[in-house]
Write a structure and sequence with these properties.
Helices cover 29% and strands 17% of the residues. The chain is an alpha/beta fold. It folds into four domains: 9-78, ADC-like domains (N-terminal domain of TfIIb, Single Sheet); 88-157 and 356-466 and 484-532, Rossmann fold (3-Layer(aba) Sandwich); 177-346, 3-Layer(aba) Sandwich (Dimethylsulfoxide Reductase, domain 2), CATH 3.40.228; 594-713, Barwin-like endoglucanases (Beta Barrel). Helix 18 (427-435) links the parallel strand 15 and strand 16. Helix 5 runs parallel beside helix 19 (493-504). The longest helix is centred in the first third of the chain and has 19 residues, at 104-122. It is globular.
Amino acid sequence: MPTKPILSPINVLKGKIPDEKSGIEVRKTICSICNPISHCGIDAYVKDGVVIKVEGTRENPHNAGTLCSKGAANRQYIYHPDRIMTPLIKKGDRNSGQFEPISWEEALDIIGERLLRMRDESGPESVVFYAGFPKWMRPFLKRLAHSFGSPNYCSESSTCSAGALLASKLNYGAAARPELPKCRCLLVWSTNPFYSNTSAVRKLLDVMEKGIKVIEVGPLITPLTSHADIHLRIRPGTSGALALGMACVIIEEGLHDQEFVEKWTVGFDEYRAYTGEFTLARTSEITGVPSDLIVKAARLYATTKPAGVLNGPNATVHHTNGVQNHRAITALIGLTGNFDREGGNYLVPPSYLYVVNGLTTRQQAFEQSRPWDEMPPRVGEDLYPVWCRLIPEAQAIHLPFQIRSGKPYPIRAVMGFGMNHRMWPGSDHMRESLKMLDFLVDVDLFMTDTARLADLVLPACTSFERSELKFYPEQHVIWTGPVIEPLGESRPDADIIFDMAARLAPEDPLLKKGYKECVDWILKPTGLKVDDLKRYPSGYTLKDIPMPPYRKYEGRGFDTPSGKMEFTSTVLEEAGIDPLPRFKEPGLSPWSTPEVAGEFPLILTTGARLPIYVHSRTFRLPWIRRLRPDPMVDMNPVDAQHRDLSPGDWVELSTQRGKVRVRANLTEIVPPGTVNIFHNYPGADINKLIEPDYLDPISGYPGFKSLLCEIRKAS
């Protein structure tokens, strides 16, 4: 008869089994490596104050016990030797790269003294407060900036999701997301949730198993492609033309929602006339998509009710024609009557930190401690007035230009949290611009290349070492507690912000109360309190939370100047910009710049994400770096054969601005004539190859996903 194994102290320790004998304890937290809509629940196995193992939290409804490769590597993230352990002050000039430790009090006093002096000398607008990654501290940093008097709070949203939000606001006054469980047809446009939002894929697969029709649009073959009923493989930068061509089919065949269009839209006649220019032949010629597939997709989306559009946060707007591209895509939602209807694109305002779950908080009121009209113009407001009208922050992409020009006023200091100069097009241009500042502070976990430029570097914590509030779309909420003590002298970002507030904005009544009290103030409309949430270490799933009704516009209209969905945008017209979602070729393309294409014949699309990496942070983790250690460019075997290239060859990828050295990855995921390079590989800074002013004129977004290049075998 078999006997049970004896769980000796040695066995339970080797097996990392939580037990009195092993001294191992399971503590609950979240992973914050990824985007704020994901942030999976974590079971941290802790012994003697050290995390020795991580697993997904089964009772967290968002990830249900699962973890992606990044989450599984959290211990390497926490204990990486690049972690900054103490505040550091620069020795020598900006280029020295040499630092020496300094106490927290000294560091914070220096920051307070320098920034207050600059406010007196040059005005509060001369100081920029910047939020990179992660995003959890943003409401507190934005309030600090405005209470200090600066309009110049900005973030990596200047190249991320805010561009798509801007386009949706121009059409509808807000952005709406597909109500997946009730969709019968899903138009997935330039997004790959299998790589960029893995915790949401289960829900997508669930609805596909129930027979939902899927139309995928995008130049790359993705894991979703094999599940799709139709794949429209467009040339990068031509999303707007495809959307207009689909609209032409829908209108000509009378498949649009005539009642919605007549009662709730403006500009339809002009829109209809313009879409009529996008005949099947012309649309196919521009986009590379066969005419029969355009017709098939248009009919399937328009007639399968309800239908939703799922787009990526930035792929459609990372073009020099990005805002109008995205306006054309989202116009299809209203054209077919799928806006804010059950199973369509359902409008639910975000609750907290971009998460939609039906709750109402006071986040926006908290952040905006001073109205815009009591502050000077924001960075970029002169060039991007539409951005500054609809997005409540400065446009960070314009920052290097204003640092260099000093117009309309000088920028003298940047207080950055998780700042990455490689986010900017012409990243070397941004790096050299930061060197021109009088004062640069960076708060980060690791000694990054941007941190090395700073005068002061402050050490932040991981999510395992701090407390924070987290909402989930599944109406789950958690207030985390630190599962280990902060490493070295590192501190939570929020603690750093509140310590600075005592020096920079001591009169702010809420910041004066402290972090937990500010969160309680934000949460007041929900009835939740931090002290109550602390009783549920794994989080708490809320019950009986009423979701807003469908078709809310029938009672209060749309949040646009006309009160209706706008095929022709009032805001754009007032700014002197074409109000139609007019298609223009990308600034660099075989059609718009044939002379450049003669020397650089390949279309380059950049910035797609691998599932193992997010920005540049996780490249330093050995577990996942081994999965794809070298920077690679994806190219079709046809293009490789023309250049006598073999798999794994080192090649030079060049644009008009420069070149990088990468390996050739021969693959059918890219069509002939197009090459793709993934996001943020160290040693292959692709953004260096993009001109700093290669931008969308409405949003200021870089054209990361449609430019021209050539590839040759490296010597």
